[in-house]
Amino acid sequence: MSDGLSYGEKEYRMPATTGATAADAGTVDIGGDITVNRLGFGAMRITGRGIWGDPPDRNQARAVLRRAVELGVNFIDTADSYGPNVSEELIAEALHPYPDDLAIATKGGLVRPGPGRWDPDGRPEHLRHACEGSLRRLRLDQIPLHQLHRPDRAVPLEDSIGTLVALKDEGKIRHIGLSNVNEDQLRRAQVLTPIVSIQNRYNPGDRKSDGLVDLCEQEEMTFLPWAPIQNLDRLPTLIDIAEHHGATAHQVALAWLLARSETMLTIPGTGSIDHLEENVAAAGLRLTPEEITALDDMG
Predict the structure, then answer these.
(1) Is 82 one of the annotated active-site residues of the chain?
(2) Helices (H), ranges, the chain
(3) Which of 66, 86, 160, 185 could form a disulfide with 181 if both were Cys (CB 3.0 to 4.6 A apart)?
């Protein structure tokens, strides 16, 4: 999962930092050999309503993806469950053959029986099927970063991770990441293989993964916050800071995330070019130390 938009979705205004590109966010290394700009793109919301089926306009979705790359985005996060399959298909339709510096991350381990359903499936046979399907849809020989979307309580975590290790050994996966995990699950996975990234829900109003953010920085893993700009209307301090800068609440939330840790890789998503440009422009917004402290204290 990438993000949920709630504040400012209906009333768009040009961002205060128009002209910035994703490169203004600085870079982060994934696994020691993939360097990307720290403002990426989450490709969940280029699908249909409820992350189900086709978007209302596939041409528009492809245009959003192309515009993201034009703005310097060179990291795109997706999953086989987005649509399902639709997000990965659109990425390939819009961007293949891919720019040399573009890294695409995907996830496996959730199935979609219907709209609004996100059921875990960590069985080895399913994870292999999911990975090989992602390779076909994305038109890749190797997935740069493949993430277990969520541990499955019905399957030993070691069995799920073991399958990803086997796929890595076969050259189908370059690096392995985890999503929606706690520290204990991370440590169990690390016994089997290097883990290069964690993707958990995290934003200025939801700080349950604070400890994992710090751990990622200490151990040189990348942290990808999903839902990075959700429920911002509940945070008056953030909105006050946005008004002071002539910026949007989305931009301030993203700027805070980028300031939170050098290993943070933000992945805001949208199906709108206007909102994409607003999000990318956040790479040029610099908060004062006092503003960062005020936002830190909200947690």
Answers:
(1) yes
(2) 58-70, 86-95, 124-138, 157-169, 183-190, 210-219, 236-245, 249-260, 273-281, 289-297
(3) 185
Q: Which of 4-8, 73-77, 156-160, 202-206 has the lowest mean pLDDT?
A: 4-8
Token pair 């994934």 is found at 30
Would you call 9 helix, strand, or coil by DSSP? coil
> How many Å is the maximal CA-CA distance in the chain?
53
Chain centroid to CA 30: how far? 13
- Residue 178 three-state SS: strand
pLDDT score of 12 more than 50: no
Strand ranges inside 4-102, DSSP E: 27-30, 34-37, 41-42, 75-77
| Domain ranges (residues) in the chain | 22-297
H or E segment and range at residue 3: none
The active-site residue out of 12, 82, 98, 202 is 82
As a whole number of angstroms, the distance between CA 149 and CA 120 comes to 8
Residues across the chain: 299
Q: Which helix (H) or strand (E) holds 79?
A: none
Per the CB < 8 A criterion, the answer to whether 18 and 32 are in contact is: no
Domain 22-297 homologous superfamily, CATH:
NADP-dependent oxidoreductase domain (3.20.20.100)
Phi, psi of 154 (to 5 degrees): -85, -5
Please name the residue that has the structure tokens 């492809």. Answer: 62
CA distance 293 to 299: 10
Tokens describing residue 46: 């280029």
Mean of the per-residue pLDDT values for the chain?
Answer: 94
For residues 222 and 249, the answer to whether their CB atoms sit within 8 Å is: no
The pairing of beta strand 27-30 with beta strand 119-120: unpaired
Residues 14, 247: Cα–Cα separation, whole Å: 8
Helix ranges (H only) for 14-85 are: 58-70
